[in-house]
Design goal:
The structure is a homodimer. By secondary structure, chain A is mainly alpha-helical. In chain A, 72% of the residues lie in helices and 4% in strands. A two-stranded antiparallel sheet of chain A has the order 1-2. In chain A, strand 1 and strand 2 form a beta hairpin. The N terminus and C terminus of chain A are likely disordered. The interface between A and B is medium-sized, with 30 and 30 residues. Chain A binds a DNA duplex through helix 2 and helix 3.
Amino acid sequence: MVVPEAVEQEGLLERIRRLVLGGEFPPGALLPEAYLAQEFDVSRTPVREALKQLQHEGLVEIRPKVGTFVREPTRREIIELFQLKESLEGLAASLLARRGETPELSVLRRNLEDSDEAVLTGDTEAYARLVHEFHWTIVRGSDNYKLYEHYERLMNQLAYQRLVIRTVEHPGRIAASTREHHAVLEMIEHKDPFGAESAMRNHVYASSREALITEPARERRK
Amino acid sequence: MVVPEAVEQEGLLERIRRLVLGGEFPPGALLPEAYLAQEFDVSRTPVREALKQLQHEGLVEIRPKVGTFVREPTRREIIELFQLKESLEGLAASLLARRGETPELSVLRRNLEDSDEAVLTGDTEAYARLVHEFHWTIVRGSDNYKLYEHYERLMNQLAYQRLVIRTVEHPGRIAASTREHHAVLEMIEHKDPFGAESAMRNHVYASSREALITEPARERRK
DNA sequence: GACGGTCTTCATGCATGCAACCTAAGCTGG
DNA sequence: CCAGCTTAGGTTGCATGCATGAAGACCGTC
């Protein structure tokens, strides 16, 4: 699947998004247009356009005439987003299972081999990367680009990178997660859409529960 | 559920979106910033911001240095979007079935009564409106605002209004659709999340097949 | 008549300037 | 000492001007 990325101005949006997701600015911090403009050596106009995008993605909050602030999803929103994640990834697994032999399948097989090894060696960093690849490969393998787009948006809203790191650190979770991944791939290889969807949803649900346990219940700015 | 709508500049985005969805400009037509600016009595800057939003929603295509054009989804994209619709509405029905007695349930009951009457009297216009309300009520009743947001975005991409009109005109479809609506509500009232999801997905799938049959396979601008 | 090159026209992309407005700090009076 | 008001600083919101670039028309030539 081709993932077009216009280099033109999308670069700026990407860079600002990375800035926000990367945690360079703590949640609640002010993101002045002028600063970003100077930082990226452009004028305020394209910065404004990018920030408006990020607002619609839910990553920042623009308080009119006041400023743009880094937004942190509430616990409730995270739960809501994980429910969506479960549904979308379930759909992706189902669609992938319907397809014939695709390049994504060999990627998944290789991924699980590497994951097994990462579990044995205790390389949590590599494991986190492989988990990431596993999920994205399934979504890309669904051969549904609109699903891919919505999933991308969803992941951006989840500020996923910050969450998954903590989740992976749980000792027992890694082994369980790997087993679930194997189960998902097995269903896909058996061309069982329903089973694949079910396995995927179970996996996402279990994974989200872990993430929510780790996630402290913090609220801010009434 | 509260649906906040900032009146500030969202009004402009909404109005331009309505212009595009309403079919005032045929697909492929040029949407000059200057024209829109004059039409809505603002400068080009806010118009540009709104158009960039619509581009990310998939409603328009901005060809750099050339112009902004109304985009028509391809047949393949419509299929992809309907698959997403099936998944999201299935999730919504499932979540609604998990909830206790909510105001949305009485809305749905009333909706089906009115629908039955519209079927008898052959009032297709009222029926189309009721179908619209039925689906949105379920999504709102899911009590998942992120789902609501993604669904809204999905529906915008589907340019739904143009599609559903043609679908409803099929004679046999209306009766079947009503039966399916009743089945969905029954599952929800029985607090059967799995059954509700299943019934909803079946309904959306059947409805999408009708829409795709009616939809001519047209492609444009290679 | 057809083809190639140039040129005009037009729309976007971005920088900049100014006004509106919100926030907070400081000041004054009680 | 505190409360209310005033004022100054800062940030966004929008209008405007200019440069860039693309697409089509037009003209000259073969």
